[in-house]
Amino acid sequence: MFYRIFLYDIRKGLLTDYKKAGIVVAVCAAFCIQFIQMRLNANLDASTASFGDVIFFGLSGMEKYKFAPDKPFVFPALWTLITVLPMFFVLYYPYYDLLGFGKNVLIQVKSRKVWWLSKCAWVTSYIITYFLIVYSVAFVISLFMGFSLSTEITKATYDMVVISSAEENINMGSNLVSFTGSMNLQLFVLPALTLITLGLLQMMISLVTSPIYSFLISSGILISSAYYMNPYMIGNYCMVQRSNLILADGMNFEVGVVILCGISLFSVLAGMIIFERREILSKALADE
Amino acid sequence: MKTEIRKSVAGWQFWATLFILCAVAAYCGLNVLIRNISEINMLAAFYAKNSNDINRNTMSAAQSLYNNWIGMEWTSPLSGFYFFVFPFCAAIPYGLSLYQERRTGYIAQMMLRETRGKYLRNKYVAVFLSGGLVISIPVIVNIMIVAMHFPAYKPDLYCDICYSITAFSFGSHLFYSIPWLYIVLRVFTIFWYGGIAATMSMAVTFFSRNRFVILFSPMVFFLVLNYSNKLFPVTSEISPLRFLGSGTLGHVDTGVVMGEAVFLTAITILVVWIRGRKHDVL
Q1: Separation of alpha carbons A19 and A44, rounded Å
Q2: pTM
Q3: Which B positions 218-257 lie with beta carbon below 8 A of chain A?
Q4: Tell me, what's the ipTM?
Q5: Over 60: is that where the pLDDT of A169 sits?
Q6: Contacts of A191 (CB under 8 A, 6+ apart)
């Protein structure tokens, strides 16, 4: 039964939602163009870049913020856009489904657990699809521009993204570790895992409050993560520039996986318990 | 008009959002206060030990109300957050009202009692006011909290490194000459942009039937605008998410702030007027 509901969710909440893929493609194309533009401004040969460089640039985030009287906290525009968009995309389908046709599905399934687990699987699939689109667009543009299709990060891009930020923050310069060029797990696993965790947490909170306020909380977590470099501010795992392969006191992959899986598990279980006890019939598809 | 305005500020969404934003603004204010008190204690301890130290520069003008309210300070993460979520929060109280009234058929009842133009005008004003108020009232609360501790020293040009205002930027002349008027101008600008964000969601009602799309469209629009600032090399800050608060060291041009506000207001009015006139309520 789980698979049938899951397939229904994929069809209703993902495949019929193809218009949003256009927004993702546009955002991804924009940051690829910005990357090419920045390389040209830095007099770097475009053909020496790699596919990994493009992803590194898009998900780099910002350097560790240290408060100084002459240094305002400016949240990273591109990173914020890339991370906030999927949070918005996964926000309302479960809510609409529950208050609409989902009630009939629930009656057919005869199990709230199955319904909830299916929605959790849907959030996971949605975020994975989101990142697949981002990586695919970056891949196609890399192919088109004649970049190397390697996932290694070149020294020139590392200097352009990390060293230029570190120079602005003298205190951070000494904190950098020697660059190895290979960050596949940080580029391709952690960002998706972080947003899946945040998506599940957001869905769980929306059961308690409402989707609107749960979105406020998840955006708050993302912005606070940009401000505080702390292992419990999970947005940090999504910022490649804050990895321990870049910063000596940066985010550790293993710790990240444990914390993210722990929060995901908590969200799924807590959501299941809350949903088991929640009154859904009295709530019509009315406005909040 | 009175009824619409009363409805716009009477809903629980307005009060809940106002409460959350006031809490954020109060946190920012208290954060600045606590940080300053600990700095003062550190300095007092230092001067108690070094009573003959004559190199005392208190930089009083930098420790001023005008430099520590939410629109000018960047020490607290929530001050950045406040101006990051403002388009979304502005739309919560009454941005969905047109959508709700269309869904429930209430709009048809109203159309029978007054003209379509009058209804849309009243609705527009109420949505604008609710969005503006919910964003600007917490800023005023923050100013009041900060004013409990910081005296309103007039900003000094010799301390300009401590201010987030670059030369010839938006209101810089006023900031150094009549600072209280500068604060009034900034709060008014915040109010205006709050109103714009709320009316933007009202305008989107004519294009979408999804309440989340309606509610989030101002935020997505301002996020894209914020990113455009990086994508295209423009000389002055164009993103309200940055120039409404203190999240920028770039040049904030008066023409851009005012021009953008007028342009976006005109666009929302045009959309509501043109689409609203043609839209069949039945």
Answers
A1: 36
A2: 0.81
A3: 220, 223-224, 226-227, 229-231, 239, 242, 246-249
A4: 0.70
A5: no
A6: A59, A131, A237, A238, A240
